[in-house]
Amino acid sequence: MDDIILKLPKSIEVALIEHATSLTPIESCGYLSGVGETITTFHPMTNVDNSPEHFSFNPKEQFSVVKEVRNNNENILAVYHSHPETPARLSEEDIKLFNDPDPVYIIVSLKDKTPEINGFKVIKPNKNEIKIHKVTIIII
What we know:
By secondary structure, the protein is an alpha/beta fold. The chain has helices spanning about 10-25, 60-70, 90-95; strands spanning about 5-10, 30-35, 40-45, 75-85, 105-110, 115-125, 130-140. The chain has a single domain, classed as 3-Layer(aba) Sandwich (Cytidine Deaminase, domain 2).
């Protein structure tokens, strides 16, 4: 598979970290939309699970964001969530709850003094196999 690249504006990187920090110890979550490989819009949403270990979107918010993204001629490029106490990698819980193969999964870790952001593309060739590819995130 070719390298997957996402371009993330510095302002959205800051917003991701601020959203994650503001909700600690609960996981933050939302969508990032844009065109091609460039993220242009930050869509924070409510984690209705209110949990430090997993998230679920508020269905009404999710529907509203998807509609807004379509109306702006953008695509959902990434699903993001935070890991308040663990590294910026897909957890077993993340993989278990994986259900949308299109977007990149971005994780914001607040485990260390310097927040870390990593992206992953999850591919499920069949029901018993999952392949995870690291995504290169370029801050612009």
